[in-house]
Amino acid sequence: MSLTGTEVKSLRLGRAHLKDSYARIKKGEVFVYQMHISPYPFAYYDNHDPLRPRKLLLHKYEIRKLYGKVNEKGYTLVPLRVYFKDGKAKMSLALARGKHNVDKRETIRRRDQQRELDRARKNY
């Protein structure tokens, strides 16, 4: 990942949130959007923007492989975790496919059944 100094310090404090974040390939480069890294609390000036797009440093063959999957099969790049290895900040990505309406209905049906079971247990 390509980060500024205050972003790295804030990451080391564990102040990153990956909720609702996603990655996109733009002009042969991979960027992560909506990844929130809180401002570093001890910086007096020149703090970073918490939601700025961050560039991921990948090899060209990795980008080409991901690009093929994302464009042909309709997958999305989703960041799973951020970690440090040999002093460098790294991110693990996953290829994910969104749910179809049939899958959503099934999830809602299961949730309703579970809710009814919980009510029955509570009243029993």
Summarize this, please?
With 124 residues, this protein is an alpha+beta fold.
- SS elements, strand count: 7
SS strand fraction:
25-35%
Shape label? flat
Evaluate the radius of gyration: 20 Å
**Helix- and strand-based class?**
alpha+beta
What is the spatial order of strands in the main beta sheet? 2-3-5
Low-confidence stretches: none
CATH topology: Small Protein B, Chain: A
Give the number of helices: 3
Tell me the count of domains. 1
**Order of SSEs, N→C?**
HEEEEEHEEH
Your description of this structure?
With 124 residues, the protein is an alpha+beta fold. The protein has a single domain (5-98), classed as Beta Barrel (Small Protein B, Chain: A). It is 36% helix and 29% strand. The chain has three helices and seven strands. The chain has a three-stranded antiparallel beta sheet, with helices on one face. A two-stranded antiparallel sheet has the order 1-4. The chain has a two-stranded antiparallel sheet with strand order 6-7. The longest helix is centred in the C-terminal third of the chain and has 23 residues, at 101-123. It is flat. The termini are far apart.
Please name the defining characteristics of this protein.
about 30% strand, Small Protein B, Chain: A, alpha+beta, about 120 residues, single chain, 3-stranded antiparallel beta sheet, two-stranded antiparallel sheet
Can you lay out the helices and strands and say which pair or pack?
Layout: H1 5-12, E1 16-17, E2 22-26, E3 29-33, E4 36-37, E5 54-56, H2 60-73, E6 76-85, E7 88-96, H3 101-123
Antiparallel strand pairs: 1-4, 2-3, 3-5, 6-7
